[in-house]
Write a structure and sequence with these properties.
10 helices
């Protein structure tokens, strides 16, 4: 049987490749790119907001309680507020136009944390059984695909070239492989931090969606396009919510690790009492 670590790395590598779905965007005619980009930014805003409220926050709250989860969310939100303020000061304090908007950096940091958590979950699932690992990977892929498209759109809309956006998106996706490795090599000793990271990531996503992406959508003057953007926002949020409702606790890494520990620590009942 294939080693669980190898299966975890293969699965998270496949998830990382989803970050290259933006290649399809490059094939579009230049005239259509701006319209599609606007739609994808709206979808990204909805996916991030929904991912925070329907995926990360419920599981963080269940694991560490409302107050601790609330603190983690607030810290995540506040940290990105300060980080964006610093990035504006560092790159744009001379009053010139910023070619690359600071919110692209926020998106990369938030996505890296989220993918790292996904990798930990996948690694923990494969430690239990290949079947559970495969089903967990498929559930994560279902909500990663629309989010990765949105992340790519954020990077391009924020000023990065298409090629650089693909490379950066792939790099953040690779953090899931690191998460799978951490899950295997001793992460069980520190699994209690995972719910706090979930809350922190939720705060990151809420900040990016509410403070950066939605204001970008409000810059559109056309009422028709604004309504299209809102519909895309709701549609993406609904898809993420539906995945959350039907997938159960896909981010329950502490439970996965505890189950592995219980499984490996069971005493030998075949003792010889004479």
């Amino acid at each position: 049987m294939t080693h669980p670590l190898i299966l975890s790395v293969l699965a998270t590598s496949g998830l990382a490749l989803l970050s290259l779905t933006g290649v399809a965007f490059v094939a579009l005619a230049k005239g259509a790119r701006q319209t599609v980009l606007f739609v994808l930014v709206a979808c990204a805003a909805g996916a991030m907001m929904s991912g925070a409220f329907f995926h990360l926050i419920p599981e963080s709250t269940e694991a560490i309680g409302h107050f601790n989860a609330g603190v983690s969310i607030f810290v995540g939100f506040g940290a990105f507020f300060l980080l964006e303020r610093f990035l504006y000061w560092h790159h744009c304090h001379k009053g010139g136009d910023c070619h690359v908007h600071p919110y692209t950096t926020l998106s990369l940091v938030g996505d890296t944390i989220h993918n790292l958590l996904d990798g930990i979950v996948v690694g923990g699932a494969f430690m239990l059984s290949p079947a559970l690992g495969l089903s967990t990977t498929m559930v994560i892929a279902a909500h990663e695909l629309p989010q990765e498209l949105g992340d790519y759109a954020i990077l391009v809309h924020g000023g990065h070239s298409h090629r650089k956006a693909l490379a950066l998106n792939l790099l953040t996706g690779a953090s899931g492989i690191l998460g799978a490795v951490l899950a295997w090599f001793g992460f069980s000793e520190h699994a209690e931090w995972v719910p706090y990271l979930m809350g922190f990531a939720a705060g990151n996503f809420i900040y990016i969606s509410a403070a950066d992406l939605i204001p970008e959508l409000h810059k559109e003057q056309s009422l028709k396009k604004a309504l299209v953007a809102f519909c895309c926002f709701v549609m993406a949020a609904s898809v993420m919510a539906a995945v959350a409702r039907n997938s159960g606790h896909v981010h329950s890494a502490p439970q996965h690790v505890e189950a592995v520990e219980d499984h490996t620590a069971q005493p030998d009942h075949d003792g010889h009492d004479h």
